[in-house]
Model the fold of this input.
Amino acid sequence: MSMEQKIKGSTRDYSYQLLRNKIMHLEIEPGTKISEKEIANELNVSRTPVREAFMKLAEEELLDIIPQSGTIVSRINLRHVEEGRFIREKIEKEIVALACGQFGDDFRFRMEANIAMQEVCASQNNVCKLYELDEEFHQILFEASGKQRTWKMLQQLNIHFNRLRLLRLSKDSHWEHIIQQHKEMYQLIIRQEKEQAVQIMENHLRLVVIEQDMLKEKYPHYFI
Amino acid sequence: MSMEQKIKGSTRDYSYQLLRNKIMHLEIEPGTKISEKEIANELNVSRTPVREAFMKLAEEELLDIIPQSGTIVSRINLRHVEEGRFIREKIEKEIVALACGQFGDDFRFRMEANIAMQEVCASQNNVCKLYELDEEFHQILFEASGKQRTWKMLQQLNIHFNRLRLLRLSKDSHWEHIIQQHKEMYQLIIRQEKEQAVQIMENHLRLVVIEQDMLKEKYPHYFI
DNA sequence: CAAACCAAACTACCATACTAGTTATACTAG
DNA sequence: CTAGTATAACTAGTATGGTAGTTTGGTTTG
Done:
């Protein structure tokens, strides 16, 4: 797909985006040792922007930098996953409740377009794009509630959670249920059926828990 | 007090901590323009670690870096304050509820020590230390609930909120009420009176809202 | 054979020179 | 005197060389 060419902005941002994608999509496996120099050569840039990208990724806990020694791609920490999932559940239930009271036309348009696209991607098995649409679905809810910043922060807290979700999506494939939940939730929101919408959201966010053990068994070296 | 000398670790971390403190304690006012070179000279270090500290602070939205142009200390964004406060309220109510069910002896010891210290600092008007103790009080709750990572993340989301709190503490001074609430909350937690503890927490976190307008009027150029 | 040590080959960290883009200033044309 | 422009003095961004600490692998020693 050559997503490499499309990334704009500074060299640092380019390095950051590229590395982040490679880690999230497991093109670089958890536990792999990498170095500034190695990556810099690979990307044909100097060490400085790569180093800065490393630091940002370390902040997000996608990398573990050991001073004067080396840098490794972090393993998925299941305790962090659960903590992140817990918080996300609590927050997003509040968000849905808020959204029920204020879901303007522009958001309805975006949401319907999003859901339509989800079905297209599902029919074509485009997992990568489907993941992005799933993210966007939830983001729209946060924006409609005037809590865009909270979404951004949750994304950071939930990086390990998201890595697990992406891993699950790529291996498993019963998105139908997920998309169905999205549809129901949207209908309940525009009908302002607060309690039911909140309940669906709770179920929705607890789906991942179930398959956790299966994935851990299949890819033990990805986890910690 | 010379907090400068005590900071250990790498040069980057030193620069970061120092700058962060200066910004949080308003030794550098919001809106001030600073530059990597200027700060590097001031701290007698090279531009590299200062630059890296800048980037970290920009991530936290304490600095606004305008590429090829300049860097300014960000103003306190009151919309961010309110969003952060909202999230913190929702999360911390859940945390208190959790803590009621699991508050071990070691945490009780830390908590009682913390509260005792709060009273000492209040009697001696040590605002700075009192702020730190306030932070620690809440952090202990998160740790007792096994959600230390969440605390760390909330701290990031709430940097603007915290700047406001610190500003309030240093100018105003009715900590008695705050400390009183801390005491009550602790008692309710060890007695496992969940509903009441949650209620106190809600009141506690809504205190800041009240004085917001007063501060905005007094220091208009600090806000946006 | 095993353990201890020593040296070479890494690593991230820091300093510094250079580049490219922005801003302010001074000067010129109208 | 004003408006527009060229230029000089900034800025953050990037490249690169050198430093100090860590790891590794081979050698020596008990």
